[in-house]
Each structure stands twice: as structure tokens, then as C-alpha cells.
Sequence to fold (367 residues):
Amino acid sequence: MSMTDSEKRVLDGTTWDQFCDALKEAGKIVRSDKAPQDAFNQAEGYRYLSRLLRGGLESFLEFRDPLFPQLRCGAHETIKLGADNPDNRYESAPVSPKHDYRITGNRGSVNYLGISTIINKYASGGTMEVTGHIDSRQMEVGPNGELEIIISRNKHPGNWLPMGAETNSITVRQTFQDRINEKPADMKIERIGAKNDRPEPLTAEKLERGLQGAVGFVRGSATMFENWSESFLPTLNQLPPADQAYCQLIGGDPNIFYFHSAWQLAEDEVFIIEASEIPECQTWNFQLDNWWMESLDYRHHTIHVNKHTAHYNSDGSVRVVVSHTDPGVPNWIETAGHRMGTMCWRWIGAQQHPLLNTRVAKLADLK
Fold:
């Protein structure tokens, strides 16, 4: 039997060499002209690429088969991208519009559960278009939280999540207000009719495609979010509404209205956000990110606040204060050793989207 081109490239080492060369080339993104050039932010940039690579290898090499999908958490405490929400648990799985799928499990008590079918092009064109969506407000749930959702092209009775002709993945968002006391949804996905099937073994073609996809994910994601960070510079230390259409195009939740920008503070400065009106909403939150649009380390620092954790003023308004050191006021957001970065505010499940007032002040004048 004659060898395929992929087999030849695996045998002579070309496949691995091309992967390593492409990964090296992706490092140039960290050194983009408008990116911070100090060693601290550059180090975080290269760590960011390593995190994207871990996520990419899992997505494209280990969990790529839409015939045998498995829900996996691809963004968490040490893999971060695109202003990942510290209140969220993110899961995803590959699917194909050629097949129907079933999600089963338990709803839990998490505040918000949303599932979208998407066209994930982070490894090629940089977009993540939503092709169908269902969330906990529309789901029929059993008396003990039992849950079943059918994912298919054709409409299905009960809980139905539509796919489009190009759908290649699903994304699950669980958004907590109180992580300690809320119980996460526990779900699994299966291809309908897959009961006795087994996955095919690895081939040279699958290896090559997986490595190319992984490095494409690193390059595509890093480029997209670095460019987005640069676009925030004209509104430095302001927090205007983001381009909502663009947010949706790159994977935003249809129920969320986003505010994005960049921040930079001297040692003696604080950044104050005043939300004079909190709309009726499922929840809201604010988070501080680094230049690479990674949430800061929420395991060890208070870098975000939400509807449940916030301190409210007597008139129902909220003031959030970003400061390098404890300013002695409620809703302190720590910079965790950063002097600059990006940030995000979300209204989730709101009909109105009030604007935010922001200003920079001296720490000494804050009281």
C-alpha cells in the first residue's frame, strides 16, 4: 500500500517541524507595536501563548471528533482568553450538522445556564458565530432538576437547540452569582445512535490536522484579542459600550450587553466606576483583565464583582474602585501587580443597558 503525503511528512519529521515553526512565528504577536514592551507584560504574553496552546491541543487533537463529543472545560483558572468571565464555567464540545445529539443531566442551581451552537473559526477566521441558543429561562426541567436537550438541524419537541449548516461546536456557559452555594449543572453529550460505536485510531492525517488546528488557534486567538486590546486605547480609562455586533460575532452570549476598554494607573491613582442605575437583570459583573484580555488571577485576588457580591449604596447605585492598594472602601478591585490592562462590564439578561460614569482620582483624595 502506498503512503499518503501526511504519512510521509510524519515519517520524515516535516509535520512536527512545521508545527514548531508556526508556533515560533506566533510569538511575534506578543511583540506587536502597541503591546506593552516591558518584561512583566511580555512574560504574561508568552505564558498566554502557552495557555492557548494547551487549550488548542486539547480541542484539536484530543477532543475533536464530532462522532464522539465530550463536554470539556477549555477556559478556566489557567487557560484564559477574550475577557473570560470569573463567574463562569465554560464548556464546549465538537458537533456536526450531519448528526443529532442529546444532552442529559441535571440543571443544578447555578444562576444562569446557556448553551449555544456555534461556528467556531478561532483557528482560521477569528469569528465564533452563534447558530442557535437555549438558556435556563426557556428550558423544561424535571421536578428534581432532570434535563434533556436535543441538538439537531430539524425542530424537535421539548428542549431543542438548533444547529446551522456550518455549526461545528457547542458552548455551555454556567454563570454563578454565589459559587460556594450554587450547584453547577452536571451534563453529558452523546451523538444519537452512537451506542455501540468506537472511535477510529489515530492516523497521520488526524495528527497533522490536529497540530495545524492547535497552532492556528494560538495564532488566530492571540491576534484577534491583541488587535481588540489595541482598539481600546482611544478610550483609555473610560468604559463605553462595546460594539455589540462584534461581540456576538466572536462568541459573545446573546443575553449579554458588553462594555470593554483599557485602563492604566500610576501608583497613587485609582479608577472609579459609578453605576448610578442598576437595571432589572439576571446578573451583572465587572472584571479587570491584563493587556492580553485574560482575567487577572481570581484564585488569589479580588479582581471582579457581581450582583451578589457587590456593596450597594443607599440609593441602589454601585461604586467600584480599582486600586493598587486597599483604598478602605467597598467594592475594591485589585490590580494584582498590574499597572495597565483591559476591563469588561456586563449587563446580563437586562432590557435596559445604562451607561457607566468613570474617572481617575488620586488615592489620597478618594476618601
Remarks:
- Residues 232-365 form a domain with the Jelly Rolls fold (CATH 2.60.120.600).
- The longest helix spans residues 204-231.
- The first strand starts at residue 88 and ends at 94.
- Residues 72 and 284 are 25 Å apart (CA to CA).
